[in-house]
Amino acid sequence: MTNKDIFIIIPAFNPGKIISEVVNKTRHYCQNLILIDDGCDAQNKLILSELEQLPEVTLLTHQVNKGKGFAIHTGIECALKNQAKTIIMLDSDGQHRPEELAKFLQFAQSKPFDLVIGVRTEIDKMPLRSKIGNIFMAKVFSVLYGQKLKDTQSGYRMLSAKFAQLFLDNVDAGRYETEMQMLMFAAKSKIHIDQIPIETRYFDGNSNSKFRPLADSLRVLGSFAKYSGVGFASFLLDYSVFVFLSSYVGIYFLTAHLSSRIISGSFNFAANRKYVFNHKHSLAKSIGKYLIAVALSLSLSSVLLYLFVDVVHIKTAVAKIFAEASTFLLNYFILKHFVFKK
Q: Which one of 83, 165, 211, 271 has the minimum C-beta count within 10 Å?
């Protein structure tokens, strides 16, 4: 692999003057730089147009701001059309030190790879909003996908041409959630994600970052966030029926548990099928799989409920909450990878 086979893409949305420093340092490591103007204002367009005069720089423009995910797609498409073999993603706001490119290039020469992510080593020095989001998403990613990544939100990444094409073909463009979906796609496809340590700079508490911790974390979580909403609504229905039957009608608590799950389960199936997993395959087949899933979940939660009530002697209404919470993540995995598997 030669230097001409390596392309660096830099998405930019009103980065300010710092982008000039980033580009001028980056061009010492690579002769192919693709800048993506993702709907910048007039002042930033002027800065980018000056950088476009550099021989190493190609400038691509979105007339309106579409989001970082769209800018990444645009840059990767351009790089692949120009026969790129290796693509490196670099942020425009100065947080990613261009000097770290030497580590990526050295790694690319040392072994085959599909996806390499630059891991920020000094998590404790991150601004609070970045630290909270990063730790939270790393834990969620580990639980959901079984790969332990120290830094899921780092945009400093290196892709092989093969993986880059797979990414374009399988992951829709969006905003900041696209970077997480890249990792999710790799994990689900059993593609190993390599990690290398990098240093990161922060300016004014990371105020230049366009990442919104709450809103963008919810977008990143995608179907899991929707599942959580449907699950909470199902739980409220389930719990209301359970309390009514066990406390006011006087039905035995395990019978009330079974009855409430049948009612809430019908709602849960319909909502998850349509709104969460957008499953359009055979309804009969989906119902059959769902009944199996319900049987497994109901059996486990019933055992837990019995232990909490008759062994630990927790109040029935409280024990119900513990039993359902204990099976929440398990139910998500069963629905996603068995009942509504695409």
A: 83
Cα(174)–Cα(269) distance, rounded to whole angstroms? 28
Domains and CATH numbers, the chain: 3-220 (3.90.550.10), 224-339 (no CATH)
Closest C-alpha to 87, from 165, 173, 161, 10: 161
- Cα dihedral sign, 62-63-69-70: negative
**Could you please report the per-residue DSSP string of 101-132?**
HHHHHHHHHHS--SEEEEEES-GGGS-HHHHH
Task: Extract the tokens encoding 294.
Answer: 């319900």
Q: Which of 33-42, 83-92, 148-157 has the weakest average pLDDT?
A: 148-157
At 47, which amino acid appears? Answer: I
Mean pLDDT of 134-161: 78
Placement of tokens 């319909």 in the chain: 270
Instruction: Give this prediction's pTM.
Output: 0.64
Helix, strand, or coil here: 280?
A: coil
193-241 pLDDT, tens digit per residue, is: 999 998 866 655 444 555 554 455 555 556 667 777 888 888 889 889 9
Share of the chain above pLDDT 70, in %: 85
In Å, how far are 131, 248, 265 from 314, measured between CA atoms? 37, 19, 25
